[in-house]
Amino acid sequence: MIYIDDISAMEVMDSRGNPTVKATVTLSDGTKESAIVPSGASTGKREALELRDNDKTRYLGKGVLTAVENINNDIADELMGMSPFNQAMIDAAMKGLDSTSNYASLGANAVLGVSMAVARAAAKSLDIPLYRYLGGANAMIMPTPMLNIINGGSHADNSVDFQEYMIMPLKFESFSDALRASSEVYHNLKAILTEQNHSTSLGDEGGFAPNLSSNEEPIIVILEAIKKAGYIPGKDIAIALDVAASELVTDGGYRLESENKTVSSQELIAYYESLCEKYPIVSIEDGLSEDDWDGWELLTQRLADKIQIVGDDLFVTNANILNEGIEKNIANAILIKPNQIGTVSETMLTVRLAQRNGYKCVMSHRSGESEDAFIADFAVALNCGEIKTGSTARSERIAKYNRLLEIQSEIVYGQYLGATLFKS
Ligand code: PGA
Ligand code: ZN
């Protein structure tokens, strides 16, 4: 019987140069696998807790040595000797070690690192790919990527209020064709921005971060780039937004700094409606704040039959909160970020709940990432159909796309959903 022989952790760095957790699991058959945990910037209030040392003498207080120690001691003591092939039991054992509801004592960064490393080691030991181990024979859908090619909000130092302007390649035969077209749009966008004397420096997720004069202008330049690359906006390639509106909340409404105005939920919803009429927008994420549930009800009533309405900070990958959303008829899609909830099993549970209730699932990176491409396999395993993992620049984003290209070459009959995702 193969069992977990050793668990250890160390502090490494993420793509922003902040410390994060790397966990390593060794099995009794000699298999040794690791995982690195990502980290968000515009985090939801109800996310599982990312444990930081708060020791100002190291990494400005952002060290993760306590989380590392929690893995080396409590978690290792609990899991050593257990079978790596029962993911639910492994994850439940870690949950049992932490008496808080949000992993505040062990740290979700400690727990997720081990959870992912165990899954990876189990798959390796069985000599099957991670997506096949986690998804079984049912894993066959190549996700449609959402590529964040203009960064704003808290991911960039520019004047744009909305956090993410993404392209979604719809009308393509395969994931690789979709990715190629997206890269062509990205390069054309760079040329257009240069021509217009805008900065082409990059934001945290690999998109450009130009100082544009309104929240609408990024959409206009992206549409131009799509055309310049030889594609038809809306037909071949559409637009998706992540407003990250929790970050815009101010006294009396939502602050749109670049337009020097503060608006109510109703006004913001009306603005989205007008944007959707003017432009080929197929998806809006976090259009309102995580606390504005009345606003979300209205937003859903007004737009959910036309476009995808995604809850990120709103649902924080939490099955209980998603359940409330389902009951109240809020949103029609959920962003899936494993570190918002803490373990591989809990993430799978939330995806299952979403899919059973007709909610689309978008697997997602965080703005602070690493070379770890776990989410690429995870998206395919769970047939998410969509993945959000940045632009076609910065190696921590490309790692996920390259892993998906590899997976595509293995799943010969892997289906690319593209436009069919948005057919009702
Ligand atoms: P975050 O951003 O990782 O900084 O939270 C990603 C998102 O909001 O989708
Ligand atoms: Zn988001």
Structure description:
With 424 residues, the chain is an alpha/beta fold. It has two domains: 4-127, 2-Layer Sandwich (Enolase-like, domain 1), CATH 3.30.390; 136-421, Alpha-Beta Barrel (TIM Barrel), CATH 3.20.20. It contains 13 helices and 16 strands. An eight-stranded mixed beta barrel has the order 5-6-7-11-12-13-14-15, surrounded by six helices. Strands 1-2-3 form a three-stranded antiparallel sheet, covered by helices on one side. Strands 8-9-10 form a three-stranded antiparallel sheet. Strand 9 and strand 10 (261-263) form a beta hairpin. Helix 2 packs antiparallel against helix 3. The model has no long low-confidence stretch (mean pLDDT 97). The structure holds 2-phosphoglycolic acid and zinc ion. 2-phosphoglycolic acid (PGA) binds at residues 40-43, 163, 242, 244, 312, 335, 364, 366-367.
Name a few traits of the molecule.
424 residues, alpha/beta, Enolase-like, domain 1, TIM Barrel, 2 domains, 13 helices, 38% helix, binds 2-phosphoglycolic acid, binds zinc ion
Layout of secondary structure:
Elements: E1 4-13, E2 19-27, E3 32-36, H1 65-79, H2 87-97, H3 108-126, H4 130-135, E4 141-142, E5 144-151, E6 164-169, H5 175-195, H6 217-228, E7 237-242, E8 249-250, E9 253-256, E10 261-263, H7 265-278, E11 281-285, H8 293-303, E12 308-311, H9 319-327, E13 333-336, H10 338-341, H11 344-356, E14 360-364, H12 374-381, E15 385-388, H13 395-410, E16 415-416
Parallel strand pairs: 4-16, 5-15, 7-11, 11-12, 12-13, 13-14, 14-15
Antiparallel strand pairs: 1-2, 2-3, 5-6, 6-7, 8-9, 9-10
Helix pairs in contact: 1-2, 1-3, 2-3, 5-6, 7-8, 12-13
Bound molecules: 2-phosphoglycolic acid and zinc ion.
